[in-house]
Write a structure and sequence with these properties.
The protein has 287 residues and is α+β, with helices and mostly antiparallel strands. The protein has helices spanning 4-10, 29-36, 70-79, 94-102, 121-128, 133-140, 186-201, 203-213, 216-229, 237-245, 252-257, 259-262, 267-282, and strands at residues 16-21, 43-44, 60-63, 86-90, 106-109, 112-115, 145-150, 153-157. Residues 17-137 form the DUF4123 domain.
Length: 287
């Protein structure tokens, strides 16, 4: 099994090593970084994007040369069998890396724009095996090497970097059906999509839940089981789960009777209406 020391020792001296991390991960990597780093030249990838007001909840790029003993910190995750985020090495300036990885925050899927959680090893690990050589180069852009924890080992990807392949004017990465081979099942996808939707569309409410009860994924796992046992129709499942998650399940009979929700054609419209009702209630406007 490869170790991080093995990987780093083989890197050219001109390469800088970075971590792309989720600040909401259970190991609190951003908090650790600001406590331990000699300098704090970290870059929030949500800055300067449509998500700029949520920089503390989105992806960050950390230059590991500023963190003494970073290998030991990351090896702790290796020993635990799971590493949150991914490591990248590049000979290029960090600004170029920020620009590239920002351009992948949104991707196209079935004609819609979706948040692409590429820094989650559970998503990226299996997906890397599905990429063509050209897709791998496009995905990594100015990144020389990428390391991610997958199937109890470190998976390395190191194509020749292609700076000019990155497009930035609009979401340019397109999800293909083949990319989802080996991905989590329907339940996992449902929970993942709902969690991402909540962080994006009900950030303040979701933050309160996270601070009060812990990881949103674990809370959703519990409410999903209750939704399945209650035989909730598929269209209404996310809305029911939101009500359950946020303590408004007693609204369920009334929510079903609301004309503006009953007339909604799309599942996300129903979810959005439910969130509007909860926000309105919490500001003293209803219920």
């Amino acid at each position: 099994m490869m170790t991080l020391d093995d990987w780093q020792q083989k890197l050219p001296a001109t390469y800088m090593v970075y971590a792309l991390i989720d600040p909401l991960a259970d190991n609190k990597p951003l908090e650790y970084w600001y406590r331990q780093a000699d300098q704090t030249d970290a870059w929030p990838l949500y800055a300067g994007t449509e998500f700029k007001d949520e920089v503390l909840y989105g992806l960050w790029l950390l230059p590991l040369a500023q963190l003494p003993g970073w290998q030991a910190w990351w090896r702790e995750q290796e020993a635990a069998g799971y590493a949150t985020g991914m490591l990248i090495a590049s000979e290029h300036m960090p600004g170029k890396l920020v620009q590239h990885w920002q351009s992948l925050l949104l991707a196209g899927l079935d004609g819609e724009e979706v948040i692409f959680r590429y820094y989650d090893p559970r998503i990226l690990g299996p997906m890397l095996y599905t990429f063509t050589e050209e897709e791998t180069r496009r995905f990594l852009g100015p990144t020389n090497e990428l390391v991610v924890w997958h199937q109890n080992d470190w998976l390395i990807t190191s194509p020749y970097p292609e700076l000019d392949l990155t497009e930035h004017a609009e979401p340019w990465w397109r999800m293909q059906d083949g990319h989802f081979v080996g991905q989590p099942g329907e339940k996992e996808i449902t929970l993942f999509n709902l969690e991402q939707w909540l962080w994006r569309n009900a950030n303040e409410l979701t933050t309160v839940l996270y601070e009060r009860n812990g990881p949103i994924s674990e809370q959703l796992e519990q409410t999903y089981q209750r939704a399945m046992s209650g035989s909730i129709p598929e269209l209404w499942q996310p809305a029911w789960m939101i009500l359950d998650l946020m303590g408004y399940l007693h609204w369920w009979p009334k929510i079903q009777s609301l004309k503006e929700i009953r007339g909604a054609d799309e599942q996300r419209d129903v979810m959005a209406k439910v969130i509007q009702q909860i926000k309105k209630a919490q500001t003293g406007g209803a219920e």
